[in-house]
């Protein structure tokens, strides 16, 4: 390991882990003084094409409350066939199957390059994947049509043995039975009535145990048939379901003037969760909720059906004027928890011009590792492609998703886990933080607790999950870092600091607090913490600022922020701005208003948006059609360059960013203008001179001012 | 001795003319009655003993059934009964007399039989006062009597039995048998005759002739009967002895016998002859076997046995026997002897009857009896002669007519039995048959009575009076002992009906105030001239008492039965539609009555005065019209509302719910698809049929498609709604499991236009049976089903109708869940009433909601066990819907009935969301309403649905004095939505007279309507009272009505006389039918559901429905000629001939009763099979055979079915088959197996009650 940079990079590539500090202070007190906590970003299921899973089960420490997995850090006595757990120091014999073990013949898990290793567990029968579509029918005809097509398309992306189900809702909630021939059959629930899981199962005729018990018949066959009514293998009901989707009507209930359509999203979700809970508990399942508006009735309603009452805004929330907020949030949280317990994740695809209640519903995805996708309409490529990308496959042809994940974090005695931020929910297991289901990234903050020592502290992440090919797998990542005495080795510690990781970690912490605390307090807290450049943008980002964002948007941005990996997170914090010109290859430029020049084309990537901005001159040229002329081929290429780059980004990113192609003075230019550092505003316009950039009409402080203040602050606070 | 004479029809029009207008007192000169009455009296008094004894025998049979309390009285009654019978016969004679003179001979013969008893009676009476009575009594016995006096009436057996069981067997089987054995009979008769002759001669000497005459008269004229009865006995005896055969013979042979009689006539000859002729052949063989057989067979066996046993064995009997028996026996023996069997059998029976008489009327009796036997024949034959003088004409005519043919047939038939039957019955039953043919006769006879009696009394009731006196004198001793009332002597519904039919020959015009319309059984045309057609409104009284005191005194219920949307025959115009423009119908300012012909225009037409409240209202300018010189508007005849009794207004938006014009209604079909429903085939049948039915939804304009929308739901424990939107390729099913909180899962696509969604609907109906073919769900819900329909209508904002096809008690967990509370042990206890009340209040609440929405519910039930109709029916009944019940539904046998009901139910004209209001002129007030509806206040009758079959009975009470001048007015306005969604007001006006004399009241009322009211009143009563108390109340009220009449309107006469007003002479018999109905007097096999079902069914019946329901129509089918219907016979087993085929219509069932010895030709014609045993009693439709008879019969059946709102399933009942029990249940004049009194018994009881009231 030459440099820390390389070490860090290598670690991330191999284990998906980045620590804020790569040398750990040896005491808690010292750790506190470091301001940036000892913590890490961990991607549990980082894609490792080079890591073939092993076909046997892991060897566990025999101590009941430890159960750590044998790893390269363990001390092994090859002769005695004994290994010592590096977490609890328990000495364990190898199982009989390891009889042939020797220095020359080591199992994979003992090799250092296998600090991350994946086991395939053969236990139990593999359950098929389950996809349950929950579809809002209170959509515009055009939207519904687009959505139907997307859904039909998605059927072809599913593995043939995957189970699918369909629930539609509007004023009523319909659970469609897929097994019947001829008549399309569905079970209907009233959209205003909160039903317990038991009631739902009874009404769906799923309360088998009782019925079969009474009749003394074997349970199994009946169960299977009963489940099959609503959840059927794709290959069997493909046609059926396609037709069914094709015939989906808009919600037939009339919507009077001045009213919103009645949407029973809450009950629909409750039914979906209840259905899965009753039929396939602890099996990988995905509830995919498609909504075109806010829930307007029943439990979980976010806004009434009167159009004259607008949906809650941040302003309302601050004034405590959002009457449904707390109730709805509580309702969805309860649902999310139930769902998480059973290992089912919930995706939300919300496409509407107005808010759809993501603020209240975000926990559904946040706690279960589901996706949230927000768009303007189902009839946009943003939604269509994003949705398609949900089913993207990895190099093995498997979905890039896993189900029912349980993450255990084991630490050396000196360390304790103090919490995790990410799409996870705690199982309240003692001594370890457990995350649920996940698709991709979970971020953990490990806080050390007791005594630091010389030597190495170790952290082991054990992730059990159901692979999308229905195998159950366990991935074990074991990491060790050296302890260092803060007094004597402060330079070392300093040099082990991972600036990027720390930035992201601090941001996440900020977001986490922002969600749970009052906004201004968070900003103040953040300001008090160690601040670097990015913090200026962080401060202005929608993750912390709610101004100009609806509660739904805030939820959406935050949701993604806490679950993307480090690179993506950095983009979110500080958008990237590339400049294209005749003067050279594309170059990254400062995210500053001074970068906005007439003869440049700018490409800004904020993660959520991809903005191509044509400078004033370029725009004029383009309008004049020079690019069509042979002699201006180069201009055509210039125009094309950012498009190609954008395309590249678009194709890899999930969710697909909003793609904006605009020009100087265009209405969409606001996306760019709101992001750049307002170094030139209407206040200091003349001071900077017109030709050097575009003024931003804002009262926000510029980076310059911010820095000035910061410096002052730093000096005074340090004093 | 108090002779109780019932006044026969006081007014005897010639024969058939029943004068309703005048007070006709029906003289039921029932010798028997007298006897009975006497008996009663006697019982109290010394006489009791003798009667008692004989009675006992009678009693046991007859009384037992009646009531525990009555036994004694009944006993006497029984005794009397025979007397009555006699009486009846007498009537015959009475009639005979008038007509008899001329026709006598020919008629005489038929009469003979009748006459014998009757004739004797009459004859007897005049000549021998005392004797006659007995003879009469005996006569009845003869016929039945010979076997069993008492039985005679009831038992055809008499005939057969006569020989063997002089009493029982002679009566019934004997006769028949006799007839059967013709050959033997011939000879047999001869011998019998010979033997009899002596007797007869003896009898004939005095009574015979009278008897002969008497018997028929007995039927008709009570008074005469009385006398005759006494005589008859003798004659009967004779009959029996020889008569049984004779008796029968008489009927059969009438002609011959008559001839014989005539030839030998005077007394003996006739008697013997007829019997001989008839009986001779029959008797011997028949007697022997029949007796035995018949006894057991006969439902009456008990009585018979009683008779036989009682009479003979008892001392009194012995006495009788001793006296009469000897004679009788002698007489019998002689006759019997001929037939070996007869002889044997006779002896026993003979003795009893004879004995009875003998004891009492030793001398006379025996002779009488004998004479009677002879009389029987004599009746016909004999009577004529005597009657010839007295009743001849009527008797003769009546008798003749029927008997004639019969007689003719008989002779030949006798051998054949079948043919002979009718005749035989007439003859044989003498009494019995007499009645049948005699019906005409009997009544006529009554007149006759009048005739005979007339002389004496000369009053309206001349007859009665006349009769009584003689009777009283005559009857006392004799009759009592042996006589039972001759059923022919008591008022016959058939006779009344036929008389009424005969009277109507031109359209009934409604212009005359207070004019009673023809009976419901009569077909007639109506011309609306200012009052509503009787098809819409019928009143109990067309002369209302002026004061409440009068009303109270008379106890005659004042009520109207209104059938607002009744369908009219094609030749009558439906109510005109009147549009008064945007301001709506013109109404009185104060009481809001609608413009009608009674409104008085004043001030040159600028104002009008309300006829109901006298308030003066301005005439709106657009409605102004000048008056002519009579004060009538010039345009009077151009405006329906000024000239007609019934018309419709177009309602404006003010008359609509929420001030919004209504949407077209919707029909929702809710089909139970639980295991039972699927298995029984119900589901597939319904679905199949609906495909066709949907083309026939109700519409106003036959050219256009119906605008009624339809929706479909299936359910078991959960509900399945169907989306059948036209744009779908396949229907969609929406399951709602949340039954606890019902809602409608969809709106658009649930209620659809049939034409648009036809393909989808058909696809759905094809698939429903398949989908549930393998269902195992047995539990059902019910409340949520109705809620679902209701919610759907609410969501669609329209009124409509739910068709619920349901199979079982809803025990699944849901609102309205029920538990099985059927507990037979509670029947008859104080808690019984609770079983008629809904089990939970849920359905009442639901019904209220349904009514508010205009959601009418029709319930089709297919139970295999208790389903608690009392509860399930709450919603249908409260919403103006109907309940149909198909117990143990099986596709094969019940499909047709169900489908026809369904078709009719779906297609029939119906109005929705209706409100009915009855306004009356000052002085009376509508106080109570009965029917299928809901009332949220005391005046508005709310009907979610109102179809053409629903009737509402409205009771009126006085709240002031009425004036004779203005009469009483009522206006019934029904606001409803038509099936095309138009809001209309239908108005029916009715004006009736008011009277200050009670006599006027009694002269102008309608028994059928009164019964309609009383039955509904009683059926409501059982909800809150003990059933027995309700029955007692009914009896009480009836007795009071009649007692009031007797006290205030009838001419002074002997207290023993039963005098009935002409208009109400059928009140007792009908009331008895009500009392015996399954609801009020359940048999062991009647379930609570059946009772609840009937109770609800009756509650919305109109008059013609209740009429046929309580008194079934029984048509003999031996001859079907031309287009005319055969004349019905009375609903009594006696009227059935073993050789005949009968069709019975009850309004709910059709029975085809086939006698055991029916003619082969008849079988071939009807069933296409030559053998009785090959008839498949499971058939529900007659085979289509290409012969006129079969065609005509099937036409007949079809026409019957067309007349009723519910399809009547045809059941073929073979005589002596197990199914016959069911059939017999509907022979309402007989004692019922559940303990209901026979007509005769009840009449006696009623008489007693009246007498108690009078004293």
Molecular structure report:
The complex is a heterodimer of chains A (719) and B (1255). By secondary structure, chain A is α+β, with helices and mostly antiparallel strands. In chain A, the strands form five sheets. In chain A, strands 8, 9, 10, 11, 12, 13, 14 and 15 form an eight-stranded mixed beta sheet that branches. In chain A, strands 2, 7, 16, 18, 20 and 21 form a six-stranded mixed beta sheet that branches. In chain A, helix 5 (208-215) runs antiparallel to helix 6, helix 8 runs parallel beside helix 10 and helix 11 (358-366) runs parallel beside helix 17 (551-561). The radius of gyration of chain A is 27 Å and the shape is globular. The model of chain A is unreliable at 209-226 and 428-454 (pLDDT under 50). By secondary structure, chain B is of the alpha/beta class. Helix content of chain B is 46%, strand content 13%. Chain B has 58 helices and 32 strands. In chain B, strands 14, 15, 16, 17, 18, 19, 20 and 21 form an eight-stranded mixed beta sheet that branches. In chain B, strand 10 (600-602) and strand 11 (607-609) form a beta hairpin. In chain B, helix 22 (315-322) crosses helix 25 (351-360) and helix 52 (1067-1076) crosses helix 58. The two termini of chain B are 16 Å apart. Chain B: Residues 1125-1196 form the Gelsolin-like domain. Chain B: Belongs to the SEC23/SEC24 family. SEC24 subfamily.
